[in-house]
Amino acid sequence: DSPEASPSVVFENIERCNPNLLQILLESISGLDVDADFTVELIPEINVAVATFIKNIDTKEFVKKCSQHKRVREFKMTVRLLESTQTIKAENLPDSISTDYLTVYFENARNGGGPVSDVQLFPEENSAIITFCDHKGNT
Fold first, then answer.
1. 137 — phi, psi (to 5°)?
2. Pair 50, 63: CB distance under 8 Å
3. Tell me: the pLDDT tens digits for 72-99?
4. pTM for the predicted model, two decimal places
5. Are 49 and 82 in contact (CB under 8 A)?
6. Which of 39, 66, 97, 134 could be disulfide-bonded to 79 (CB atoms 3.0-4.6 Å)?
């Protein structure tokens, strides 16, 4: 694994904190602006939000600050770095998509890609699982 910390932080147990409040809380803790310096993706199905920092910050220190923050504790949220993975899921794909197209797309450096080792297509879900040769290609 790379010694470099992930630019993404996972917030679990977010049901007590509405999305706008969460964004304001993260701005307050980080001193940064949502959209300009970081993005927040909500995954309500699993009660999680992921903050990804565009601006280079010490995410390990940010996780520590969040874990100690009074409001984060009141909402009973847990905070951790998003671990690196070699696999991603692409959703809402067009019906006509091919594994070759997805391979070439995700290997393109302009798309943040890298060498792809496998693509599994799930046409009934309009999704695919893309596996990279290493975790640096899945940005």
1. -90, 0
2. no
3. 999 999 999 998 788 888 999 999 999 9
4. 0.67
5. no
6. 66
